[in-house]
Amino acid sequence: MTTTMTSTPSRYPQVYADWRVDPEGFWREAAREIDWVKPAVKVLDADVGVFGSWFVGGECNACYNAVDRHVERGRADQAALIYDSPVTGAKRTYTYAELQDEIATLAAVLQDLGVEKGDRVVLYMPMIPQAVFGMLACARIGAVHSVVFGGFAATELATRLEDATPKVILSASCGIETTRVVAYKPLLDEAIGLSRHKPQACLVFQRPQYRAALVDGRDRDWDEAVSEARATGRRAPCVPVAATDPLYILYTSGTTGRPKGVVRDTGGYLVALKWSMGNLYGVAPGEVYWCASDVGWVVGHSYIVYGPLLHGCTTVLYEGKPVGTPDAGAFWRVVAEHKAVVLFTAPTAFRAIKKEDPEAAHLKHHDLAGFRALFLAGERADPDTVQWAERILGVPIIDHWWQTETGWPIAGNPLGLGALPIKYGSPTVPMPGYEVQVLDEAGKPLPADTMGSIAIKLPLPPGCLPTLWHADDRFREAYLTTYPGYYNTSDAGFIDGDGYLYIMGRTDDIINVAGHRLSTGGMEEVLASHPAVAECAVIGVRDSLKGEVPCGLVVLKSGIARAPTEIEAELVGLVREKIGPVAAFKLAITVGRLPKTRSGKILRGTMKKIADGDTWSVPATIDDPAILDEIGDALKGRGLGG
Ligand code: COA
Ligand code: AMP
């Protein structure tokens, strides 16, 4: 089904064609929107890096581009950051000048703690302004930040500390979830205890909801350190870095428990984000842009912090949920109160609102006159939710598709270029920079409307990952070897006759739970570590709110006399303890056997179809078909499988 939003023809076909004719010219032109200390010698150098590098020879600073240049050019008194926290009742606006002062002072503190250009700094923080100051303070002095989402447990944090080897960690005493205070600092202490790498120092922001104990000789109180630096008037200047230097590392789920350290280089990222703000999101400098995600995810990096600020917008930092803080009208309140013209969130947030307030009664209390569009990403935007949002909001609802790896959207509907007609279930068309193809198993392009693996022709555009942190080989193996000449997205789908993309699901063991990307392989490793478990499989089961939730099927070792329900409860607790609450692992089911192929491969796909109540057939390679009936019965016993 198609809806048309505009009668003026979109400039997209021409812009995309221009990029195809002269990709380097296209990005050279886009790079004029960024302030360079030294312009690039080569826009694309095919001989540098794993598949080539963007803006080689160029030098710039991300913080200067996001903050200082706006202060210098008339935006000093404009709101840069609005912190809105329904979970604490706090609200605070920082102008660009105030933001610059906070960042430059914190950057001086980091320097005092020994942080230099190229050093890593890990942030384990809730959605408070200090998290944004921390990221930009690192960027200011050329340090590489790595933000770890607060919903991850100590073990996950420890893995990231070992890989990123940070000199300093920035953290806060606690985060606040709808109904509970989550003490971060004890988790941080535990993670440092577990990690073979120890940081030189931790800077801890104490929140009134929970005061953490500081470790002598290692931990410093954030406020004290910043006040001291401020009292002596110390502010760190922006340090020029190479365009190809890493701005940050962001860990994301791979197919095993070992996360991948996605590297983001500096110059290309700034260029791509700046291009996307006007052309894709259709916002103008000075307008308010709200991305309701978390700084722990790529969406938060790109569209809470860097994108809106690079563009001179006001960004909203929202510490709350779509429902329960206090009600399903929270998003409308924030849009209306801060006059956001665009909201970007995950479909799951809208499913949560729809479930609680199907008629959107809360909307009546808020004036959304200036609101222009809702952007959705992070998981498939189901047509029901898109149509509901369209009906209640009366603005374009734009699905767009991207990954932690790409840093900005691969496909979307470019509002700034004039929107294309929407087709429900499709994130529309590839953005300039991305040549997207659907391939068969042999890597041959498939005709329109045929499902296959989605791949992007190399080189990836500016903004996308140049490699994985200290792991070029893993990068090649994971993304570039399956289809030579292409980046394998590990998403499956098709392209229709009009060139619209449809993203139908992952081809690997990654599931999407409430817009959060999780590895079933990682959860299996945790389940397998329980002494009573002989073998296990974790599948993503369809869920009306979260899209998918994990379900673990476990076979116990013979001779285990304990009640299975007791062990199942332990397994739920173990995943929460080892991976974190964000895994939303609530369902472990004991079964007698797992279905396998004759070569011993567990048939997870078939079990998923049974659990989802979809039609399924017995795979020809199955060892013992009777096991599928046993699995069906076990799933039915827990209300799954229709
Ligand atoms: N720190 C500590 N714990 C966290 C956390 C954080 N930053 N974020 C989430 N958690 C916890 C939650 O409290 C919850 O714990 P519980 O099992 O004790 O209830 C668990 O992790 C799962 O969290 P979540 O998946 O967020 O579920 P929820 O029930 O709290 O909320 C939604 C459901 C749909 C409202 C929520 O997931 C949401 O707003 N999603 C939007 C997703 C999003 O922004 N994705 C980013 C990509 S665009
Ligand atoms: P993340 O790296 O957390 O951003 O997750 C990336 C994955 O989320 C993609 O590989 C897709 O599987 C899924 N995804 C993100 N956006 C969309 C979308 N608009 N439609 C379908 N799937 C999406």
UniProtKB/TrEMBL annotation:
It comes from the Bacteria. PANTHER family: ACYL-COA SYNTHETASE, ACYL-COA SYNTHETASE SHORT-CHAIN FAMILY MEMBER 3, MITOCHONDRIAL. Residues 69-457 form the AMP-dependent synthetase/ligase domain. Residues 12-66 form the Acetyl-coenzyme A synthetase N-terminal domain. Belongs to the ATP-dependent AMP-binding enzyme family. Residues 523-601 form the AMP-binding enzyme C-terminal domain. The lineage of its organism: Bacteria, Pseudomonadati, Pseudomonadota, Alphaproteobacteria, Hyphomicrobiales. This is Propionyl-CoA synthetase. GO terms for molecular function: propionate-CoA ligase activity. Signal peptide: none annotated. GO terms for cellular component: intracellular organelle lumen.
